[in-house]
Amino acid sequence: MDSKLVIYNTLSRRKELFEPINPPLVGLYVCGPTVYSDVHLGNCRTFVSFDLIFRYLLYLGYKVRYVRNITDAGHLEGDRDEGDDKFAKKAKLEQLEPMEIVQKYTLGFHDVLRLFNTLPPSIEPTATGHISEQIEMVKQIIENGYAYEVNGTVYFDVEKYSQTNDYTLLTNRQLEDMLNNTRELGGQDEKKGRLDFALWIKAKPEHIMRWPSPWGIGFPGWHIECSAMSNKYLGNQFDIHGGGMDLAATHHTNEIAQSQACNQTAPAKYWMHTNMLTVNGARMSKSAGNGFLPHELFSGNHPLLNRGYAPMSVRFFMLQAHYRSTLDFSNEALEASDKGYKRLMNAIALLPKLKASNTSEVNIAEIKDRCIQAMDDDFNSPILIAELFEVVRIINSVYDGKTKIDLKGLEQLHLLINDFVYNILGLKEDSAENNGDLEKLMDFLIKLRHEAKIAKDYSTSDLIRNSLQEIGFQLKDSKEGTIWSKS
RNA sequence: GGCCGUGUGACCGAGUGGUUAGGUUGAGGUCUGCAAAACCUUCUACAGCAGUUCGAAUCUGCUCACGGCCUCCA
Asked: Catalysed reaction per UniProt (predicted)?
């Protein structure tokens, strides 16, 4: 457990040694999706990134409580405290109950993440399920003097807060600059300060999602849910709070302020932010309309896509970039990742066929150390993957009889693949539907072709090989015989 | 305008004050009945200018370009 894991902390803007507050327990909170529409690929990247982080913490032996919320209420259109609730708006549009919207897109979200082979979080709380916790928190903040109520809406008093606290911890901005640069927005009259944000919002008569509160009928502000739920499940102080980079300046800044104002302590020790997925250099986003839906990517049914790509290839594509770098999407890049991923998995498939020698020319323990070093350095999956391609070369070389490995080395190899490829990177074979019948059938075809080759009947042997190629099975000849894989 | 960040070879993408990232692609080779696969070898790099340094693509400054946040978004 005395790992050398180093994490980039947005608070300090540098990498810090990871020291959990109560080892071996680790509390991890990640801002989840707002479920009023389909998740797009950019959203998925964040959750895949935190899946990698979650998995590596587990590998290190930590007992991680991973909380990722579902935002299903209170998220305003345009942060004006008078906009429409996103769910209510969408519900009107689709003529559905708000909770039907929530249900539909929550299920869709889960389906997509399952395809990407992410582990489910330990707890997945919803905003609507924690209204009373949010109300209690707002009450406490008011009691502590950092919020005030106007006409049924409660605002957080940023000016008061910043007298004794640093409101701009995450962004390094000057409060005055923020004041000067905030645009003139509507609905400002009620607020004392223009940076003040709503904790609780009075519901207009047409509002569908509404709850009673000490301040009248209303609904919670966007930021308070995460503060309330992280506090409930992870305590006043926990280890890691994460989310997309776009959340740092506003959402997370306000979360810190709320938690601090309520509990007199900073909520999280490490703040981690994942970078954006871009398309042609521009951020993929819902409002920009340049987002892919995952099923479009899988099927290739999108104007920007040449073909479809399997979920695991896409996951691999994401893991080949570091989580704090932007990742630019293109067909070429995906194609490259797809081929690399298949090369990796094909090599792994050879593992059971490898034969041990009495001597070993490779040092698997050394490679494992480098893999750990890579992940210890702020979860550097691209370097880990580079190391794994070294392993690919070794496996292929051993299979070809050009390199020797002993029994112990083989065991280490199995373990390495199991730990780093399956458990940490979270990759798996896409074609899990392989069954014994297919295996027998392919063996039969390979035998037929082999006999044709012995008889020098190359037209028959090529017909078998090429026909299989056409329907997606590739035959590979080697001195050890012929094997096959799905192409 | 403010804050934060980025600019690496055909493409994607790591890293580092002096040593090969890696994947994909191109070229050559080994193997093969021919291929494919695999393996070996190999080409085109660190936006520009100036400075620090024995040495910088890596540090500093400036310039240019791009992106994110400052309004909902992972």
From this structure: tRNA(Cys) + L-cysteine + ATP = L-cysteinyl-tRNA(Cys) + AMP + diphosphate
